Request: fold
Amino acid sequence: MLQYLVILLDDTSAAYCHADNPLKERNLMPIETLKKGILFGMKQNLMIQYVFPDYGTRDYELPKEYAEVIESIDNVKIYPAGCKPVTGIEDGNETDVEVTNEVPEKVEAKNLLLRLPFSKMLKQKDEIAKLFASGVRINLCITDVEQFTDGQIEAYKQLLEEWNGVLLGLYKQGLSPQFNLLTDRMMLKEMHNCEAGVSNITLAPNGKFYLCPAFYYDERMKVFNQLNHHQPSSDNSVGDLERGLDIPNPQLLRLDHAPLCRNCDAYQCRRCLWLNRKLTWDINTPSHQQCVMAHIERNASRSLLNDNRKVGEFMPEIDIKEINYVDPFEVRKEF
Amino acid sequence: MTKIKENQDSWQSGMAKNITFIVTKDCQLACKYCYLVGKNVKERMPWEVAKTFVDYVLDHETDPDFAYESVVWDFIGGEPFLEIELIDKICDYIKTELFRRNHHWFNSYRFSFSTNGINYHEKAVQDFIKKNRDHLSIGITIDGTEKKHDMNRVWKQPVADDNGLTKPSERGSYKDVVKNIPLWLEQFPGGGTKVTISSADIPYITESVLHLYSLGIHEVNINVVFEDVWQEGDDLKFEEQLMQLADAIIDGGYYQDYACSFFSEHIGKPMDPERDNQNWCGAGKMLSVDAAGNLYPCTRFAQYSLRDKEAWIIGNIKDGIDKNRLRPFLTLDRTTQSPQKCIECEVASGCAWCQGENFDAAQTHTVFERATAICLMHKARVRANNYYWNKLYRKLELEDLREQYEANKRKVKPEIC
Ligand code: SF4
Ligand code: SF4
Ligand code: SF4
Reply:
């Protein structure tokens, strides 16, 4: 069921997931579009998540009339680091998310979304580990999943083992660190994926809906020109504010229509539909890379859970089984 | 000439990897129903491409994608025998390499052809047949009576257009094919033919099948096209034709020694969503290569067979296969791609699909959206099929021949692609 409406306030709105935002020109969503978008969200009972512009400077303020419209409804704000958006009303929402592509020294928000390529993550592992104790929820998003090779599996395993050590130390001190790649899976009893097009939908400044911002970027960059709808076209939209939502083959976005994922228990995996389409060419089929990375994380979570249990009772209702594969594709015949 | 025996031992149906060379996109004919929309005279496979491809395949002997007990090397076109010299060279190379590498396919391979039969009698083709006799299967396509055959299977115009594309002429090809049938049947006594039915062909089904039987062809594999070509009322006309055919086969006693794939005891039953969930077609388990060295999960994903979509290229002979692009094919199952009506369908078994047509007709870029243009046609087939078996078994019981029939009945392997 649709629950969230992501509104990209500007073409430059901060990238907050796997895809970089290649759009650098300012293009604010027209205020009328914004109002209609909010109305759509209200009528469909959707929680609104605004993604704020990244103008590459901390000195910006949205025009006053925008601030008023934005705050006309309860919302979550996703904004580039250091630019707590000035909207006129500071409501300091617990769920607001600060996004950055650099490992920060300190974090002001309650949620940090850190976007890094794999190599940078390896290089800055200690700086990242320092953030675990900050009391802030850390979401790390790897921005070059498609480049990941089997030759890097060991390095990733080792890195997560090291971080497990840091997290275990914090647990022992009675703290409850939150780090998506390692602590989420320990808490989950079912899939908790991105669910683009299923639980959330994105409204772009052009007044059209997209499965997620990445599909909007692709359309603007004319990527996947040949890979979309019936007629070759770069149109990725799935409806607009006038016609409403119109998602072709919506069932293929759902977990029950993804033969690999519905049999998988890497519950913390993003299950990124955009990466699926980019790498396997089918939106319901994950790439080897995505599965392998998610399974290394899953297995590391299992070992963190077990280490925690050596110290005392810990999440007794969660069971993460031992498995001997890192890509469910290898065991698909056993499903 | 001696009969060519079908070497069943070395041939493990179902456990064979199917490898297809699209040796040419050219053909002497320009059949009106041909799904090859981009057929042309330009793209012929260079020897270097074929050789590099064979090397690639044989180098990957232990790769799970190639770890099949046996292999079928399929040569298609256009018309494959237009490139008989190239094919001969490729087959020689394959045999030499299998031997040299001590490859596990050495005694477990087959060369397979589907030809329009026009140059079947020519020396080069005949020499090739003699040389490879124990490892060959060849099917000649003939659509039925002269009238029916010539409705669709016409010669192309002698001159291609500026883009190298070929157009149909008015001249039918029946006579040019039928003259080679006796020779073919002498060499391949069990030879079967493939007949494709489109809307306009429906009235000719019965006479066509009987005609093929009269030519000595014992196995007629016949399918309706998967494309959305059907007109209102076609299903009823189809049912009527199939009932006529059923009467003719039963009353004429053909059911003993002849087969027609329309009638099968296994079709028309509900299917269990869990037990019967496998995919129908073999796309993804097959591998095709074209003249440019591009690789496809099946030839139906090459550009010349697609109307609305770009080719689904999974790699090329230099860089190999991008396995990510094969994953959708290898994880496909029946229910995920089927609409609810098919999952609940009371007559689902035997209702086929073609992954390439599904892809081509899909609303999005996916192989998980099943096209159901044949829905009413399948239901009509099931009704006629039920009639056939009820009538046949009653007759056999009255004649006290049922047991004997069961013991000797021909097994037909439906060919669907
Ligand atoms: S589909 Fe989901 S996980 Fe993938 S880029 Fe879009 S929002 Fe992120
Ligand atoms: S690990 Fe792979 S199969 Fe499992 S949820 Fe993620 S993408 Fe799907
Ligand atoms: S296409 Fe029609 S006949 Fe075939 S399975 Fe689906 S509902 Fe049944």
